[in-house]
Amino acid sequence: MSAQHFIVATAGHVDHGKSALVIALTGVDPDRLPEEKARGITIELGFAHLRLGEFEIGIIDVPGHEDFVKNMVAGVGAVDAALFIVAADDSWMPQTEEHLQILGYQGVRHAVVALTKIDLCADESASVAAVREKLRGTPFADAPIVPTSIVAGRGIDELKSALSSVLASTPPPRDSGKPRLAVDRAFTLRGIGTVVTGTLSGGEFRRGQSVVIQPAGMNARVRGIQSHSREVESVGPGTRTALSLPDVALAAAGQPGVARGDVIALENMGVSGMCIDAVISRSARCESGKGRPALKHGARVRIHHGSGNVAARVLLYRAPIVAPGESIVARLRLERPWFACTGDRFIVRDWSETATLAGGIVLESGVPARFHAPAHQRLLAQRAAAPADIEVFVGTQVERDGIVRGSALLTDSVFSDREIAAAAARLVECGRARQVGEFIVHADWWKALAKRAADAVDAAHAAHPDLAGLPLTELRALCKGELGAPGLFDTFVRDLCGDGFAQSGTALARASHRPSLPPHLEAAGARIRAAFAAKPFDPPPRRELAADSLSQQALRFLREKGEVIEFADDLFLTSTAYARIRETIARFIQANGPATVSELRQALATTRRVMLPVLDRLDREGFTVRAGDRRSLRAAKPAADSRPPIS
User: Fold this and answer.
1) CA distances from residue 155 to 118, 245, 333 in whole angstroms, order as listed
2) pTM of the complete model beyond 0.90
3) pLDDT tens-digit series, residues 533-558
4) Four-point Cα dihedral 256, 331, 368, 451, nearest 10
C-alpha cells in the first residue's frame, strides 16, 4: 500500500515548546539558523519528516514570536492539519489566539493539541479544561488534547497516535491537476544550480516538465525533484518538495529570478494581476481596541498568500468597515503583480505587520470585471455565499459573461477541469445554458441575442420587402461585440436557421418571407406578369417587357426573386412556364422518341427564338442530350443491385 502524504504545521505562542516537540517526534531539529540557536527561538520556517504507519508527514515548524508572524503565515498556506501547541504553565497567550485565527482563515479544520510542559502544571485536568474552553466555537473544538512533557518523556507516543487518528479522518490533499509550489526557500547548489523548496498542492510535478514562475511569468524546466531528501521522478500534492531549476537565476536587486513568495505552476493556469475580488471575513473572536486596528474601506494592508505577501488597498462594497464576525465582498488593489487562483485563501494583516485583521477567499482573480457593475456584484455575492461550490462558480461566470469558451472556463481556479466540465454539463442539462460548439452560452443571453437578430431581420423586411432579407454583414456588425470569436457568428446563424429563419445567399430572412415588389413598382410588375400570363411560352422581348425604368426595376426584382428566369439577353420566362416546358418535352420524347427542334417547337406552340435558348439550357442541365439534330432524355443511372450474388 502506497503512503498517504500530508503536511502538518505547528502553531502556538513563542516558548511553548514547538521546536522541542518536533525534535521529540522526528529526531530532527527544525531550527537551522545560528541566530535561532543563539536566541533560543524559531525565526524562520523549519522542516522535518515523520513516518507514522501509512502516513508520510511533512512537518513545518513555524515561529511563535509576534515579530515573525509573517513567517508563520508563509508556512501554513497549504497544510492539511495543525499540531497546535499550548504550554500548560503559560496557558493561552496572544500568539496562541492569533495562530488559531490564522489557521481558521486558511481553512484548516483538523488538529491535534499538544499541552506541553505538563510537568510544570499543578492541576492537569484544569489546564486541559481551560484549553478546551478556548477551543469552543472553533474548527478545533473537538480536537484531541494530549498532555506532554519533553523533560519527563511523557505523551510522545500518545501524540503520535492522536496524529494518526486525526489524519485517518482528514481528506487527502486535493489533486485538481493544477500543481502549484509556493516557494519558501530559493538557493543555489554547486553542480546543480538553482533549487526551490515549498509545499506542493493541487497536482503533480514530473522531472523534465515545463513550468512557469509566477508572478513574473518566467519559463523554466524541472531538471530534478526531491521529496524528504529522496530523488523522485514525480511528486504529488501534500508533500514537501524541492525542484531543481538550473535555467533560472536567483532574484537579485534589479535582476529577474526566483525568490521566496513566488509560485511554480503550469502554463494556462492564469496570469498575475494587480487586482483581486474577494470575500473578507473577520473572526468573531477579534477584539475591538486593545491595539488591534479596524479593517476599514481604503485601508492599506498586507495580503499574505502562499509563501509571500503583497501590499494592497482594501475597497469594501456597501460598508465602511469589516466588523468582527462579518464577511464583506471587497476589491483588493495590489501594489505589484501577484499570482492567485480563484478559490484561494489568504490572510489580511495590517500595514505595520503587528496584527492579523482578517482572512479572505478569492472570488475572481486575474483581471476582474468592473467592480460596481450589477452583473459582477451578483456574481461576487453568490460566490461569497458558497465559496466552495463549483456549480455556483461556473453558473455565475456564464451568467455574467453570457458566453464562455469551454476550454477557458475557470482555468485560473482551484477546481479541476473535470469538475468544471461536469458543472457546465449540468448547467446545460437543466436549461440554464446551452452548448454551442466549443462555447457555453447562458440561455437567457443567447435568447436575448437571437431576439435582437430577429428584430433586425423584421425591420429589414419592413423597410425593404423587395430584398431577400438582412445582409449578413449588417447582422455581423450588430453582434460583433458578443460574437467576435472565430466561427461563433456562423454558429449563431446556423442556430437561427433551425429556429424559423433561413439564409438566402448573403442574407438572413424569416423562413416564411417572400420578397414582394415595393409599392412604387407594383403597377409595373403587374403589367409584366400579365404579359407573361398572356403568352407563357412566347413572351414579349425585353424592349416590350421593360420599356421604362420602373419596368426595368420590376423585371430585375422578379429575376432576382426567382419568379422570372433569364435565358438570353432578349428572352425571359417565368419559372412556372419553364417547369411546364420541361414536363411537355419529357412527355413528347417518351411518347415519340428523339425529337427535333421543330417538332418540340410545334408541341409547345412557340417559336425558335424561345426554343433554341431553352433547349441549350436543358442540355447544360443534363435534362436532354443532343445527337445530331435530335434530342433525347438523358437516361437515369440504374440503381445498384443490392441482391447478394448467386454462388
Assistant:
1) 10, 42, 48
2) no
3) 999 999 999 888 888 988 888 888 88
4) -170
